[in-house]
Each structure stands twice: as structure tokens, then as C-alpha cells.
Amino acid sequence: MVKLDRLINILSRYGARLHGSIANRSVELHSVAVHDPIRPHAATGDVFLAVGAADLTEALALAADARATVAIARTTDSPDPHHRHTLDDAGTALLTVDPSVSWSQIASVVYGLVLEGRETESGRGPSDLFALADTISASVDGPVTIEDQLSRVMAYSTAQHETDPVRSDTILGRRMPERVRRFLDQQGIFAHLATSDAPLYIPPAPEHGLHGRTVAAVRAGRELLGSVWVSGREPLPPHRARALQEGAHTVALHLLRSRVSADLERQVESELVIELIEGSPDADAAIGKLGIPAHDLRVIALQAHAEQERNAGILLAFERATTGFGWSRRGRSTLFGNTVYTLLPAGDDPAPAYRWIADIAASLPAHIDIVAGIGGTADARDLPASRQEADECMALPPTPTRTPHCYDTAWDRILIQRLRSVASTGRLPSRDPVAQLADADRRGGTHYVPTLQAWLEAHGDPNAAARTLGVHPNTVRHRMRRMREFDYLDLDDPTKRTALLIALPLHTG
């Protein structure tokens, strides 16, 4: 199921053009019909694909017979007044798609959105995964749990007989308990799933609250997508084991369709977000397609790193950022280069942005490190500026608590960093005060440069500078008195102090 408005917006990315005055674009579409020349009046559906129709007149007549809400035709023709009158009378929408787009592409998009449009935890995918769990449960005569490759629950059957504490905890926690996962890993269960499609029986383990399981891998080709678990104290009879294996194959098909549908949504969403953060002449239209407010937005920039797993961290972060499409997420995201950018309605209070980052961090494995930055508030046309601010916040040194920087509170450090960046584009003076102080440090073994930098950053407070340097305040005072004796160093001029503060990091690297 998908709303007409969403179908129109998605197909517009493929060059579709809308014709006809549609009073209610929020109407839900539940079915698809395709023109069959052999049985032209056999199909009915909310969306009609006019495959093989000779012209728009025939396409609209066939759509009327199919009682369609929207008709799709591949043509460069536009409706004439008679066609428009027909559309208005029937209350039908017409989408014309350029013939350069194949019917197979159009059909894959339409079927993906209409038939697989309800939301699942992994994105937009089949709506009946729970119904499939019930079907498998009935065929194997036991409670069923469908899990992904990380042991997270995707669906479970309503059958409750043979339920044990582990199954209850798994469903309530949305994931297999870690202690049980470690136990099964030690028993070689996950190694078996990685290499074999054959159902495997796991004997009861009362000490872990496990009454017994039979598990089968859910696989697409060589890729493990997840697993199907059946609770039971005894091994499944051969005919039920075959039913479990066949059920796992059906689950794989559902998950593959889910992935295709989710990837379609991610692609459309990503293109729109990139368009906005780079600057769009039609920003209001792009925001409208994303379904988020056009004002009080913030850009969040996030990078994720995992040792010895190049790109794995950021890809997983992007997957988590785009989990649950449409109205179930506040933000809209893209993976641009090695950074996930998210547009988040937040307003003047950055708290929602901090919560969003915390939620992403909590959803990632513990070995993945993230760094993030939060841009200032912006409307749709100012998002490139908020994106730059998010990038600049992300590039600042981390805080002791690893709390992400936000432009609202880090603007001063960003401003200094911008000045330093501008200053570094030209040739630095070879005999400026900083260069001469550095030369004195090299010749005399003194520590004038770090002391001056700490003193300036502490606004002349010797106690704060001493804490930064890890020395006694009198040491700072002594060094500052010595530096004031240098005729090339004027610390009483505020302009020169500002210039020194910018130049010091450029010299010290």
C-alpha cells in the first residue's frame, strides 16, 4: 500500500508527468493491474499499467474498465481536451512516462511501492512478514521467530505453545539476549548458518532458559540474510524440516524484495537531500517531496569508522539512519562521500539533533567510532550553509566527553578556524613574532611558543594557562615577563594579539 502522492513523487524522478485534476492525492493504492491483450478486461486494480495500448484514448478506456485510480502510459503525447474531460469525469490521474524508460523499470517501481509499501523495521518492504511467520508456524507446528543476521527480530508468529523464557526475552528486547547468542556461538550454531541451508536442531539448555530450537538459514545466493527459529523440545520430523527449509527460502524472497524497495526509497531520498545541501534553485519543491517542513531545519554531518573494516562503519550508519521510511522518521538522509548528512526538523533547540546522534550511536556495534557535527537552523534555501557549519563542527577537536559540537555553541572556534584557514592560503611571514619565538625555543630550549598560545587562549589568565601546560602559574608569569622584553612582541595591542592567536597554530602545525 502506498499513497497516490508518494507514487507520483517517486515516478516523477523517472520523468513521469501528471495529468488530470486529482482532488485527493492522499488516497491509498492497494493493487496493480497490467493490460493483457489476450484478456483485455480481466484485470482490475488501483494502478493500471497500459502496456501495449495503442494511444492515450485506448489507455484511458482500459483504465476505466480496470476501475483504476491512476493510469500509467509510456508516451510523449499529452492529453488533448477530450482526454482531460475523460480524466475529470472519472476522477482518474494519468501519468505519462517517456518511452526511454522501459516497462520493466516502471513495473518494478510500481510493484515495489504499491505491493510492498508498508513499513518494516528494515525499511520499506513486504507488509506480510508477520503473516509469513504464522504460515511457517502452522506448517512446522511450533512458534517461529524470524531474525536478521545480527539476531534482531524482524517478525514472529502469534503461536505461544512451547514458548520459553529465551523466546519471550527475544521478542520483548527485539533481539536475542547476548548471553544466549554467546552460548549458541560456542555451540557452532552461527558457523553452521554461515555455511549450510540444512535445518539444525539445538537441544534444550535449561541453564540458559532454552527449551530447544530448530533453526534454518535465510540465504540469497551465498549471502546470509537471517534465520528462522522454531521452538520445540524435539527435532522436527523430516516433512516439517522440509517445510521449515522452504519457509526460509520464502523469507529470503521477501527480504530481497524489501531490500530492493528500501534501496529505491534511499536512492530517491539521497538525491533530494544532496540537491538541497548543495543548493537547489527549486528547494521548496525538493523539501515537499521529502515530506518534511521547509523551516527550522538543521543539517547533521556524521562519520563512522571501524578498524580494519574500510567503509563498513559508515555504510552501517547510513543503513541505521534510513531504517523505517516515510512518516516513521523525522529526518531525511544521504550518504555523500564518507559522510552521512541528515536534514532534521529541530528548531532553535538542538536537543533533537543530539538525540538523533545518540540513537544512531546506540544502534551501531560497540567497536564503531562516530564523530558528528550539528549545523545551525536554516530554511530550505539556507541548507548549504548549515551543511558547511555541520562539517566545520565535525572537524573540531573532540570534547572530553565526546559530545558532538553544535554551531550554536561552537561558533567562536569555527570562526577562528575559518580565519586560520584563510591565513594559511598565502605565504606566512618568515620573520613574524611567532617565527622568532620558535627560533628562540630551538636555540635556547625554552617553551615560549606553547606558553604564549596557552596564555592567549586563556585571555591572559596565568592560572588557566598553567593548567593547560601542566606547570606552576609562577612559571607562566616568569615566561611572559621574559617574552615582554622582546621588542618584536607587542602583547598590549589587541589586533596583534588576535593575529598571534591565529598565526600560532599555523606555525606549530
From TrEMBL:
Origin: domain of life: Bacteria
PucR C-terminal helix-turn-helix domain: residues covered: 449-504
InterPro entries associated with the record: CdaR-like_regulators, PucR_C-HTH_dom, PucR_C-HTH_sf
Originating species: Nocardia veterana
Protein name (record): PucR family transcriptional regulator
Signal sequence segment: none
Ranges in coiled-coil conformation: none
